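Please, structure for the following, as tokens.
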Amino acid sequence: MSNVALVSRCLHGHTTDILWQDVCLADQWKLHLNEHTEQLWGERGHGESDEHDDTPIVQKLYILATYEKSNHAKKPANKSRNPEIASKVHVLTHRCHLPTPNIFTELPRMHFHGETLSQDARLHALLKLAIRNMVNVHTLRVVYGHWKLASALVVGFLDQSRSWRVPLRKLWLETCCLTIDSLHSLVPSRTTGLESIRIRRLRTESPRTIRARGMGFLEFHLSRGGHELQMHNGAGGWIGTTVHLSEEGLPERWPRQMESDLMAKAKAFDAAMWDELPEIKTFCGRK
């Protein structure tokens, strides 16, 4: 159907309505190659690996944030123009591109407060603009989502000042973590309008508590940079990624990863990503 939308002007509007009803915001794995990483070679290729590149999320949010209303003046024929795509979205899902953790060997040891994932301020500015335009979303699903982006989605869609045509009725939170501020949006004293909330595999401790006491032996959370770890891929095999591993019981010969170093690495990855998206970078710079 997506191919038809690209080649048929007649069917473009009809297929767009269907294609954008259910939108998934997922990151990707990517190799960054520059003068500093050209000497790096690994099993997956040439360059430095960013296990959680937000390029697909940014590109979708840009489309949803910049649609033009039909009552605007028509542009010249040589100018491209997006339809009201954001208003077509009914179901919005956010998830990590990695398979969900194994419930026996990984989930009990895993935390979901990855501070380096989806942390860039420009990404969150785009998200706010996109949420403002998505006035017909009735279902929000966060399945194995990134901590900061998942929290921003919950806060944005449950904001009592948000304009909508169709209220958010269903919220699905699974294998993720939320900030304290986002949890305030769900307290009983607030009117949310939700008809159902599905909650699965959420830890009872807050990220603040985890930071105060530290992660336990062999516990970890996803990160951009850090120790390499092989995780189950859900199909009987393995997939490699990077994690921040607890220092408790860590062998002396293993390198220690500071949160500040991991955050610096994430910001460097984000800078490289935005340089490859100049139009979106310029748009965010004006906001």
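The radius of gyration is 20 Å. Confidence is low (pLDDT under 50) at residues 69-81.
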